[in-house]
Amino acid sequence: MVEDGHITPDQKIEAQKELENYKFYENKTQLLSPHFVFWVKDILIEKYGEDVVDGAGLKIITTLDLTIQNEVQKIVSEEIDKSEKLGISNGAAMVIDPTNGQVLAMVGSRGYNSDKTDGKFNVVTQGLRQPGSAIKPITYLMAIKKGYTAASLIMDTPVTFLSTSPGQKDYSPQNYTGKFLGPLSLRQALGNSINTTAVKTLARVGISNMLKQAFDMGLMTLEPTTENLKRFGYAVTLGGADVYMIDLASAYGAFANGGKRFDLVGILKVEDQKGRVLEEYKEVSGKQVMTPQEAFIISNILSDNSAREITFGAVNLLNITGYQVAVKTGTTNDKRDNWTIGWTPNLLVSVWVGNNDNSPMGKVASGVSGASPIWRRIMLSTTKTRNKQDFPIPDKIISLEVDKISGYLSHDGFASRQEYFIDGTQMVGTDLIHLQAKVCKDKAGLATPEDVANNNFNTKEFFKFSEDDPVSTDGKNRWQEGIDGWIAIQADKDKYFPPTDYCRTDGMVTVNFDSPSDRQTVSNNFDIKISTSSLKKINEVKLWVNG
Predict the structure, then answer these.
(1) What's the pTM?
(2) pLDDT grade for 168, boundaries at 50, 70 and 90
(3) Hey, which of 16, 431, 479, 530 would disulfide with 467, CB 3.0 to 4.6 Å?
(4) What burial letters (b/e) apply to 32-65, b meaning 16+ CB within 10 Å?
(5) Domain parsing of the chain, residue ranges
(6) CATH code for 62-385?
(7) pLDDT tens digits, one per residue of 347-361
(8) What are the residue ranges of helices labelled H in 56-149?
């Protein structure tokens, strides 16, 4: 500039002195919601082209709630800071209104300007991550669609699925705790996120049907293509397939909204620099991907704190006091992905934690110590901004008192509970699982008719557990083998073997005078009626009359 005559040599020296003390700052994005902004920008570029978006002076009104956005960003950053000791370096979250699909907040990483965690990468829209057990509700939804109920009995017992491909090992699903709980209702199985029962349920409903339902709900990576059907096995119900958070949020919005799914929306209105409206949001009806009754059953199960008590305890981070909130956690077996996603009828919050380089985390307990603290804080904060709502009970939903174990209508004074059913799916008739038998007092076996007549018996409770193996190709029932093996190691195993034979088989005969009865006054001519019973076949009955 001196050579060109713009400044004097003295001015050059003075400027150099000022620069010595000048502090330069990195060129960082100062947007309040950068991941959301660039997501919206990408949508607009796809519609109008980059030149128009960058240079045409567009005015864009979005769905973002800046108060919620700032709070979510704050919570994610604070909780990930606390979780670094667990080997967790990043987190993402989004908040949507499931009644219309509008995105209220989107945090794609703990910090957009963080080079340490590749903060510019938007996990919400760009991250293909495994959902772990967070995908299980879709498997159980398919079971409900096929006539199962929240009361249906599923045995949590060891099971092995034979390999159908050369070189592959047989598959034996394991539970997170390494233990098997035996008889569980579908409500308990889903609420406690039991792996074995989820895989059994998938085997019953079919992998292709589950993938079709997932794809119909908006999980685009789970399309039931020939390639996916070859690639995915029964572990897909445990989260063994990649999904995008934005798709999972859209899909589960249908559970919150009576079975209707909406494509997620970030843009309400776009105007050019002259004020002409290029596009404007209009309400749509959404796509019905399940019935209101099916959506209610799943949401009711996942909002039932007692249904998850075995795994999570009565006091847990998933229970939001004063609100009916359905929630599902998920953790991959290799500890690379950890999720919590939960909803009310007018709010859905999805949270993921992990590492962008896909390295495993440390000790993360089923979503409780990773994503759940973030999810809980966001849910507590955002529910205050919405009208409080419980899940509405649709028509054709009935509540019945059922046997606590078998799911049949309550009977014989056994422990029972209330359960919701889609009318017509409730189990009726004689309970073939939870039995009451009259047994001899002095020895094993059923009481004989004479013992019963003489009140010489005890009443005892029994269970009879059996399952068919729907995937067996060799006639061998491996599911029943697993049940029998579980029963064999129970301390009270006698109650699982109801007697089928009488305790006495000595040919004892019982004779009853049906008419006339004792002390009855009779005329000279009267009929005598006698009934007999025996443990063996009666060939002849003779009657002697004295006098």
Answers:
(1) 0.88
(2) confident
(3) 479
(4) ebbbbbbbbeeebeeebeeeebeeeebebebbbb
(5) 62-385, 397-426
(6) 3.40.710.10
(7) 999 999 999 999 999
(8) 66-83, 123-126, 136-145
